[in-house]
Amino acid sequence: MAAAFRGHTVVVGLLLAHGAEADSRGSAGATVASDGIEIPLGGVTALILASAKGSGPAVEALAEAGARVDARSVDGRTALMYAAANGHAGIAGALLRHGADVSAVDGLGESALVQAALMGRTEAVEVLRGAGASWTPSEALLFVGRASDARRALAANAEVHASDSRGVTALMTASVYGHREMALLLARRGADVNRRSTPGVPIAVQGGTVAGGAVTALMLASVEGHLPVVEDLLRAGADPSLASADG
Fold first, then answer.
1. pTM
2. Would you state the pLDDT for residue 18?
3. For residue 38, how many other CB atoms are within 10 A of its CB?
4. 58 near 92, Cβ under 8 Å?
5. d(Cα 61, Cα 12) in Å, to the nearest integer?
6. Secondary structure of residue 42 in the 3-state scheme
7. Which residue(s) pair with 31 in the sheet?
8. Residues 87, 123: contact at Cβ < 8 Å?
9. Which segments in the chain show pLDDT lower than 50?
10. Could you tell me which of 76, 103, 82, 94 has the C-alpha nearest to residue 33?
11. Which residue(s) pair with 163 in the sheet?
12. Burial of 165 (0-12, 13-18, 19+ CB in 10 A)
């Protein structure tokens, strides 16, 4: 597994040729970090590790040796999800060519497409959508940046209060990026301007990270300096006295 994670393709091939199991899993309790994400070794295969790390030749060697491309980690994530979330669009494409299920979801109900979008991996999003991945209306609302797209999602019965696994709503996303027209649209359609993201779950902003979570759309617009959005949210009833978990 270490050879796959580090991209030592020749070593991976040699081990497979000498009987190593392509789908063997690591020791329970051990973890390894990839792009800031802790991966539990006990719940992953060598293919998942190679995909998370972006080791293309190792991915190909393992897939050709019969490794299950849709094997799951303990939290239900597949190699495709790890590759997409980490921005390895080429790896995602290779996994799809080997039969990876583009519509699979993890334990939180999130697909590879949603995970790529959450991490801002636009190239991976394009690869997945090109392979047939699609949004639900509510997912589309969460990840679009234009008011026109938001109107289409709402017309398709998107839930204006929907949130991702961090508790971030479409209004929060529009606010943090300064998408004023979209933020206004959502507020007028009944989005809760004082709703908080999930406490304890970090939220990335341009200047760093709000580590404690529990943020509102107003906090996000304020920390990014989007004055027009701040003014609109205040007029819509946003409470300036609320504080995040970090204060």
1. 0.72
2. 34
3. 8
4. no
5. 7
6. helix
7. 40
8. yes
9. 1-4, 8, 10-11, 13-15, 17-20
10. 82
11. 169
12. middle
Q: Are 188 and 159 in contact (CB under 8 A)?
A: no
Q: Quick one: DSSP state of residue 101?
A: -
> Phi and psi (nearest 5°) for 206?
-60, -35
Contacts of 235 (CB under 8 A, 6+ apart): none
* Beta carbons of 164 and 135 less than 8 angstroms apart: no
As a whole number of Å, the end-to-end CA separation of the chain is 42
Separation CA 228–CA 237 (nearest Å) = 15
User: d(Cα 169, Cα 149) in Å, to the nearest integer?
Assistant: 15
227-235 helix and 180-188 helix, angle to the nearest 10 degrees: 10
- What pLDDT is recorded for position 1? 45
Distant-in-sequence, close-in-space partners of 241: CB < 8 Å, separation ≥ 6:
none
State the alpha helices, DSSP H only, in the chain: 2-5, 9-17, 46-53, 56-64, 79-85, 89-97, 112-118, 122-130, 137-143, 147-155, 170-176, 180-188, 217-223, 227-235
Closest to 133 (Cα-Cα) out of 118, 147, 112, 149: 112
Of 133, 190, 138, nearest to 163 (Cα)?
A: 138
Whether residue 77 contacts residue 83, with contact meaning beta carbons closer than 8 Å, is answered with no
H helix or E strand, kind and range, residue 39:
strand 37-40
